[in-house]
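Bug #77: duplicate submission created two jobs. Keeping one. Sequence:
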Amino acid sequence: MAERALPPPRAEEVSDGVYAYIQDDGSWWINNTGFIIGPRSVTAIDACATEARTRALLDTIDRMAARPVGMLVNTHHHGDHTHGNHLFGRYGPVTIVGHEKCREEILAAGPPGPQYATVWEAPDWGEVVLAPPVLTFRDAITVWVDDLRCELRHLGTPAHTTNDSVVWLPDRPVLFTGDLLFNGGTPFLLMGSLAGARQTVAALKDFGARTIVPGHGRVGGPELIDNVLAYLTFLDDLARRGHAAGLSPLEAAREADLGGFAALSDAERLVGNLHRAYAELNGAERGAPIDLPAALVDMVAYNGGQRLRCLA
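Kept job's structure:
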């Protein structure tokens, strides 16, 4: 159990009043969030996977802001970013904002069920009450934290999921990318699109951000974009070669030479990514439903038949 003694989460000020909330080690179900403290209001960016982790985030905001959160932005629907949404209303009404498909996918996914424990070393989720966005957008919306402009944008195509949104602070310039970017972890596209991810991640360069808060891993700069693009290029080449050779996604993953990407955490995501890439090579639309249980079973098989490591 000593392995579970992770460093405590920390609030890292990335610009005046703008904080990245970093949760190491950033692997399965351990995400980054953020919050912005204005003179009169507080806006948060994403919740956490478990009740305990979300309450720790809220306690940190309480200590630092001395006022409740009035708005919560969800970068996408995955549970590590949304399971704790309902807890933000502990002091009063909170407006939850997200892409229109973020709302749809949260409601469709439901709370974590017993099947999660067959795939991951499932944590103690605590109480999970679905609380999807109540204010939704399709392409972009601007919200304000007092006088600070925050642009929420969907970049037009499925990528990590069907509903990825970034939070762009043009006056700083700071970019919260959600899980479009991982730092130190293997990117994950099972519910999105490889072609869409290559397009969307490349488009992140257009913001000209100097500080980037990824969905998992440490805060960085524009180099995070290049690192993920390099992995996506490797994945695209591997998928095309494996597909042409008649290999299954699991077989292609097992034969792959990861090279420099072997150091990334959660290597089993490669199998899920190949399932998505193969679907697109077979003509599936970006973000189209595929056999997720089959992909997860293959990921566990790639992991030696062991449940996937989760320290949340």
